[in-house]
Structures are given as C-alpha cells and as structure tokens.
C-alpha cells in the first residue's frame, strides 16, 4: 500500500470541513473500528457501539463525504458495507495550533486515543487474568515508560524510526498465521525538568 493511501495527512487550510466532521467522538470511534476490524455494516457497528443503525449509518455517510470511509462490497445485496480508506490519520501539530477550529479536533482526537489506550489495556489484563494468552504473548507484551533526555531533532528521528520499524515488522508478518492485531501505543512529549518548575539550583539529586 502506498503512503498516499496508507495515511491521510490533514491540512487545516484544506481540510477544515473534514476536521469538523471528526470532532464527533462517535465518528472517530467508527473509523477506528473499521480500521481495526475491517469492513462492516451500519448495523454491525451499531451493535459494537450500542448505537442505533440509523445513527451509525448517518455518521458513516458523513465520514464518506469527507473521504475517510468508502463503500465496500454489499452484504446479501441488502445493506452496504463500509471500509476505511486509510490505515491512519496524521497531522502537523504546528499547523493545527494556529488554525481556527483545529484545536477542537486535536482535543477530541487525543481524548479518543487515551480512551482507546485505557480500553485496550483493560482487555489485555482481562485476557491475561483469564489465561487466554499463550506464553509467547505473555512474555512479549507489556507497558513501559522510558524518560530519556533528547533534543527536538533526536525526538523527531525517534518518531520516524519507530514508525518505519513498525511498518517493516507488519509487512514481514503479514502472511504469518500466528500474527494477530496488536495495539501499539506510543507517546513522546517533553517534560518540564525539576529545575525548570522550581527555579532549581542546578544540583543533581
């Protein structure tokens, strides 16, 4: 899959209406479900989200109007199936920060990402507790929080390398029957040092 079809990069100057469309939490959730589990009907998505099929159908049409989803094959010729057009959505934080209305989209998107993290970890813990994960998965899953000291340039390099490596491994495992969908969460944000917050004395402790 080419980069232009794998990723939708939002431009606040060009995609103002699309940004407004994605400020609705249910639309973000529907798009995420299609990306994670593949094509589905409005009725199937309604069952997953505990929404009516009329509601999910309406929101899917809005997403389609802005190029996030498209019609897939029909199911028994009665109800249309929808698919995600791209694997992920991306944007420039710098561009979003100065664009009217873009901040609302970023806030909603970030909240959705945090909710997804919490839900995914809860499902993972339930799978662990129920003994449904094999030893090879138990050994190679988990959560870590590293706090290296990096320059902005090194952080950009780390972000690019992380994304590149994930793509490489996913391509390598695409035909392996043991492969399963994995929720990979990655966040990188600068923290204020103790001396920055307190006016500090510059002495290590």
UniProtKB/TrEMBL annotation:
Signal peptide: none annotated. The keyword Transcription applies. Residues 17-104 form the HTH arsR-type domain. InterPro entries: ArsR-like_HTH (IPR011991), HTH_ArsR_DNA-bd_dom (IPR001845), HTH_MetalResp_TranReg (IPR051081), WH-like_DNA-bd_sf (IPR036388), WH_DNA-bd_sf (IPR036390). Keywords: DNA-binding, Transcription, Transcription regulation. It holds the Pfam family HTH_20. PANTHER family: REGULATORY PROTEIN ARSR, TRANSCRIPTIONAL REGULATOR, ARSR FAMILY. This is Helix-turn-helix transcriptional regulator.
């Amino acid at each position: 899959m080419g980069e232009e079809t794998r990723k939708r990069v939002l431009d606040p100057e060009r995609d103002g209406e699309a940004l407004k469309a994605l400020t609705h939490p249910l639309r973000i959730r529907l798009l995420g479900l299609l990306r994670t589990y593949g094509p589905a009907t409005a009725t199937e998505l309604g069952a997953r989200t505990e929404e009516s099929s009329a509601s999910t159908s309406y929101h899917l049409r809005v997403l389609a109007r802005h190029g996030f989803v498209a019609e897939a094959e029909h199911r028994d010729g009665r109800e249309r199936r929808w698919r995600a057009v791209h694997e992920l959505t991306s944007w420039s934080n710098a561009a979003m920060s100065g664009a009217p209305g873009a901040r609302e989209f970023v806030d909603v998107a970030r909240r959705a990402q945090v909710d997804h993290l919490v839900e995914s970890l809860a499902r993972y813990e339930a799978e662990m507790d129920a003994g449904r994960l094999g030893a090879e998965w138990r050994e190679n899953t988990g959560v870590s929080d590293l706090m290296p000291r990096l320059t902005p340039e090194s952080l950009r390099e780390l972000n690019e390398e992380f994304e590149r490596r994930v793509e490489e491994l996913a391509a390598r495992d695409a035909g392996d029957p043991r492969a399963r969908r994995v929720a990979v969460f990655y966040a990188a944000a600068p923290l204020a040092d103790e001396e920055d917050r307190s006016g500090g004395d510059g002495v290590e402790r």
